Amino acid sequence: MITIQGKGVSTGVAAGPLYFYQRASAALSRYEVEDRDGEWQRFKDAQAKAIEQLGVLAEKAREEAGDEAAMLFETHQMMCEDMDYEEAIEGFIKEGGMNAEAAVTDAGEIQAEAFAAMDDDYFKARAADVKDISGRIVGILSGVVQGGIDSDVPVVLASDDLAPSETIQLDKSKILGFVTSGGSGSSHTAILARTIGIPAIIGVGDQLREEYAGREVIVDGGTGAVVIEADEETRARLMKKREELLKRQELLNQLKGQANVSKDGQDIRVYCNIGNPEDVHAVLENDGGGIGLFRSEFLYLNCDDYPTEEYQFEAYKKVLSDMGGKEVVIRTCDIGADKMIEYFELPKEENPALGNRALRICLNRPEMFHTQIRALYRASAYGHLSIMFPMVASVWEVREAKKMCEQVKAELRAEGIPYSDEVDVGIMIETPAAAIISDRLAKEVDFFSIGTNDLTQYTLACDRQNNNLGRFFDAHHPAVLRLIKMACDNAHKEGIWCGICGELGADLELTELFLSMGLDELSVSPRSVLPLRQKVRETDVRVVREKLLGGLASADSRL
Fold first, then answer.
1. 160 and 127 both lie in a single domain
2. 76 an active-site residue?
3. What is the pTM (predicted TM-score) of this model?
4. What domain range includes position 6?
């Protein structure tokens, strides 16, 4: 038995084979082949498999976001069999003696360059498509696993950490839990684990070795323990704990349909954070009151080029329709920092967390922003939509973003396209600047939603992605809590609501404090809804308010 200790960031106990995430290698092999007909057949087999994979992705996209989303993959299927593309590959193999990987790469680059040189914007955009299908075929030829998991059974997934673009492609049905050597509690791996309700452990470092692959492992997301080939006593103890957690969940299920009201009658909305239309099922299953944060950037991460208005419209429409009139707060594109996309072609920055990201990109690229705002307002006709702008630091930024909304509404009216006049517009409070001038910002918007992950990072000058900082990244720090209260108080002075959509919203140690502050909403991972509801219903706010709010001052002793 081998025990590895990390940090638990999503509770639960899971058992299964340990599987290491398979990431594509950047190295391309080039060599001369003798059996040229055999090498051509290798390409044809890989081409057929790529077309099959794209068909599966097209159906998945159609279910999640409609026909427009599926068309991207169907177009890629057709491009795989393009006559000019095939003839170039055949020439490289049969006449030049190239191996299939090199032939596909070179043919793809030639065709992509030809598309990029065209005047028509539509054909220019096809350059990225050719690169994508070539990469897919080369990956199949090289034995690279699409989506990182090649297993017939569910596994405990191990990795250094996963980028947002990698998490979006994972087959969630095959994952029992996560173990990562790096990462942090606010990493996208941790957020994904909490969203789909599986245990996750980070920060195990070099204790995680490839030689453990395939061995039976038990992970305890509560304690951060990873046990490889557990002895009978340890296995029995952990399996008993798993059963107890499942029974607790059954008891929590009895809270479904109950109000989020404290003992003394204070009401708070409990909403959910999601990253894609698939997650709506988890929101409804866990009785979330609405969606307080839909991370729209994951639509961008799932595309090879800027997502079209139709693609976004179908995704937003599906979420709003599936939520059946419950409020859905959609955050505009929050790309940059730890969420980078190749086709954005963002220059390398020394400090990307403080650089061109989120609303800054949207205001600098009005065409992209315009497309998203149009898709959002069109979708608003199908449910209760609110729009939220991230990474705000100044009043002028909010005013400029609101101008785009007014421009889009005028366009839609002129075109006779329906949209709702009841769309609220809010901002995230995630910079100290926004919290400090929240009295002025509150005059401009309909609501505040506090992003505690970034607010903590910027307030404490502490990188949220750096697991080595450990105790220095303290979301309970008095400075962070004071900024939250400041924003909440200033929101209420202007008659607007204030919530939290960061991970701190699910921290049950702070629920009483948040109720005492008068926060109107907490948006959490779907699995956190019922434990949070239980905590709210057990609290008498009048009893704890004076003690807890007074405690903010005494907390200075921790500094």
1. no
2. no
3. 0.73
4. 2-21+148-251
